[in-house]
Design goal:
mainly beta; 4-stranded antiparallel beta sheet; 3 helices; disordered N terminus
C-alpha cells in the first residue's frame, strides 16, 4: 500500500486521496463514504501533474519559514523551503541525488525541527529529520535495516515524542516512537508477536494518552491506547466481542475525550465517545436503528459542539450535532428536504461557526455556514448562480484581530476554479484574483496560511503548477518562484447577515 501511495505523490491532492481510499485495507474504512455520502464534488475534477509542474504540496511551518515538497528537473521530488520571496525559496537537500527524487511526504513539525519520510536510494523509505539546513537534514533511523523500507505512517506527537506505525521487517507493522534521535527510536509493543502486523492506524493524542486502532490477531480491529510504554499499551474496550471487529474510525479529540465511529455488531456504525477508560466508552446515540447504522463521518469540533454528517434512514446524509449525550445529539437541518442527501462535505471550523459545502437541490453545491441551529444554517452565497455547482473546497481559515476569514477554491461559471475568500456573509464573499484568464481557471490546491499570507499551488497557464502567495488582494497575489522552469505542457482534461467572529480561547 505504501509503495502505491509513494508512486502517486507527484499527483494532485485529490487524486492521492482517491487512491488512498482504494488502497486502505478493508477493515480500515467503515462504510461512511459508501453509505452516508456521495463522492465529494472536487474529486470529479482532479488535476494531473505534468513534467513542467513543480506541484508544491505538504506545506508546514517552522518559525517564519514554510517547508514543502516540490519537484524540479534536476532533483525530482525533494524538500524545499521558502520565506515568501523568490530568492528565499530553495531546495533544502537533494536527499536522493539525481532526477528520481526522494519522494518526501508526511512533513511533521517536531521540537523545532521537521520529521518526514523519504527514500535516499540506499536505506528505503524511512524517517528523516531536518533543522532546515542541508547539513542538518539526515536519516533519523533505518528501522528496516538495509535497502528495505519500514514505510512509517501516521506521525502523531504526544508527551514530547512522536508516534507512528512502521515495519522493521521482523515484527510486521507495529506502533513505534521516537524522541528525534536514532537511539530513542523504538517499537512500543509487538501487539501481534512475530512477523504478523497489528497495523496501527488513526493515531491521535488526547491528554497524556495516544489512541489508535489496531488488530491484535485475537479480538479483531478495536480501539487501543498507549502512554508510550509496553505495559501501558492496551485495548480500551472490545466493542465487538471476540474475533469480530468494531473498526473504530474518525478518531476526533475534544478536550481530553475522544469521539469516534464504530460498529458494535448490534447498532451498526454509530457515534461513540471515550473518556480514556473502558467504563467511559459508550454509544452516544443509535441514530439509525438496525445493523447498518447512520455511518457518521467528518467529525468536526466547533467550540464544545461536535458536528458531523449522518444518515438516519429518513432524511439522507445531512448535518448533525452532538454534545456527547443522547439527548444532545440531533439533526441540525435537512438541507436537501426528503430522503435525498445534501452531500455535505469539507466541514471546517471557522471561528465560532461551521462552514461547509452542500446542495439543497436548488442551487447545486455551494458555500454554507451553520451556528448549530436550523435557522442559522444557511447558504452564504450562490457563487455559481442557479442549479450549477461552484464546488467550494480546500477550506483554509485565517484569523486576524478577532476577525475570521476563510479562503477556498470555487468555480463561479465564468473564471473556472479560482481562489475565493469569505467573512461568512454574502457581501464579504468574493473572488481574490483570476490567476488564469478564461474559463479553465488556475485550480489552486494545498492552501496554507502563515502570518497573514496564504500560500498555495496554482497554474497560471504559462508557468505550470507553481508556488503562489496572496494577502487576499489582487495586487498582492503573485507567483513566488517558478521552481520547475521547463516549457509548459498542456493537460486535457439569500444568506446570513452576520460575519464570522473568532473567539480567543
Amino acid at each position: 500500500m505504501a509503495r502505491l501511495i509513494y508512486l502517486l505523490l507527484r499527483s494532485s491532492t485529490q487524486l492521492c486521496w482517491i487512491i488512498l481510499i482504494l488502497s486502505i485495507p478493508l477493515w480500515g474504512i467503515p462504510p461512511t463514504l459508501a453509505t452516508a455520502q456521495t463522492v465529494p464534488p472536487p474529486l470529479l475534477q482532479a488535476t494531473f501533474p505534468r513534467i513542467s509542474d513543480s506541484n508544491p504540496h505538504n506545506f508546514v511551518a517552522l518559525g517564519r519559514l514554510i517547508y514543502f515538497s516540490a519537484s524540479d528537473p534536476q532533483h525530482g521530488l525533494e524538500l524545499w523551503r521558502t520565506d515568501g520571496t523568490e530568492v528565499g525559496t530553495r531546495i533544502v537537500r537533494d536527499i536522493q541525488a539525481g532526477v528520481r527524487g526522494s519522494g518526501i511526504w508526511q512533513l511533521t513539525p517536531y521540537n523545532s525541527q521537521l520529521v518526514f519520510v523519504a527514500d535516499d536510494g540506499r536505506s528505503g523509505r524511512e524517517l528523516w529529520i531536518s533543522d532546515g539546513t542541508e547539513r542538518g537534514t539526515r536519516l533519523l533511523a533505518d528501522i528496516h535495516a538495509g535497502a528495505g523500507s519500514s514505510h512509517p505512517l501516521g506521525l502523531a506527537e504526544m508527551g514530547g515524542r512522536l508516534y507512528f506505525s512502521a515495519d522493521d521487517g521482523q515484527h510486521g507493522r507495529e506502533l513505534w516512537v521516537t524522541d528525534g534521535t536514532e537511539r530513542g527510536t523504538r517499537m512500543v509493543r509487538d501487539l501481534v508477536p512475530g512477523s504478523r502486523s497489528s497495523d496501527p492506524q488513526e493515531l491521535v493524542a488526547a491528554g497524556d494518552m495516544l489512541y489508535f486502532v489496531a488488530d491484535d490477531g485475537t479480538r479483531g480491529v478495536e480501539l487501543w491506547r498507549s502512554d508510550g510504554s509496553e505495559r501501558g499499551t492496551r485495548m480500551v474496550r472490545d466493542l465487538a466481542p471476540g474475533m469480530a471487529s468494531s473498526v473504530p474510525a474518525e478518531l476526533t479529540v475534544m478536550g481530553d475525550e475522544l469521539s469516534f465511529v464504530a460498529n458494535d455488531g448490534v447498532t451498526g456504525y454509530e457515534l461513540w465517545r471515550n473518556d480514556g477508560t473502558e467504563a467511559g466508552t459508550y454509544l452516544v446515540r443509535d441514530i439509525a436503528s438496525g445493523m447498518f447504522g447512520s455511518s457518521p463521518a467528518q467529525l468536526t469540533p466547533v467550540g464544545g459542539t461536535l458536528f458531523f454528517v449522518a444518515n438516519d434512514g429518513l432524511g439522507g446524509a445531512e448535518l448533525w450535532r452532538s454534545d456527547g449525550t443522547e439527548l444532545g445529539t440531533y439533526l441540525v437541518r435537512d438541507i436537501y428536504p426528503g430522503a435525498v442527501s445534501s452531500g455535505v462535505w469539507y466541514l471546517t471550523a471557522v471561528g465560532d461557526a461551521l462552514v461547509f459545502t452542500a446542495s439543497d437541490g436548488v442551487h447545486g453545491y455551494e458555500l454554507w455556514r451553520s451556528d448549530g441551529t436550523a435557522a442559522g444554517t444557511q447558504m452564504i452565497l450562490d457563487i455559481h448562480p442557479g442549479a450549477a455547482d461552484a464546488f467550494p473546497s480546500f477550506f483554509t481559515p485565517q484569523f486576524t484581530l478577532g476577525q475570521a476569514v476563510l479562503y477556498f477554491v470555487a468555480d463561479d461559471g465564468r473564471n473556472g476554479r479560482e481562489l475565493w475568500r469569505t467573512d461568512g456573509i454574502a457581501a464579504g464573499t468574493s473572488l481574490v484574483h483570476a490567476i488564469r484568464a478564461g474559463r479553465e481557471g488556475s485550480a489552486p490546491e494545498a492552501l496554507f496560511e502563515l502570518n497573514g499570507i496564504l500560500y498555495f499551488a496554482a497554474d497560471d497557464g504559462r508557468n505550470g503548477r507553481e508556488l503562489w502567495r496572496t494577502d487576499g488582494t489582487p495586487a498582492a497575489t503573485r507567483m513566488v518562484r517558478d521552481i520547475n522552469a521547463q516549457p509548459l505542457q498542456t493537460n486535457t482534461s439569500a444568506g446570513p447577515t452576520t460575519p464570522i467572529t473568532a473567539t480567543t480561547r
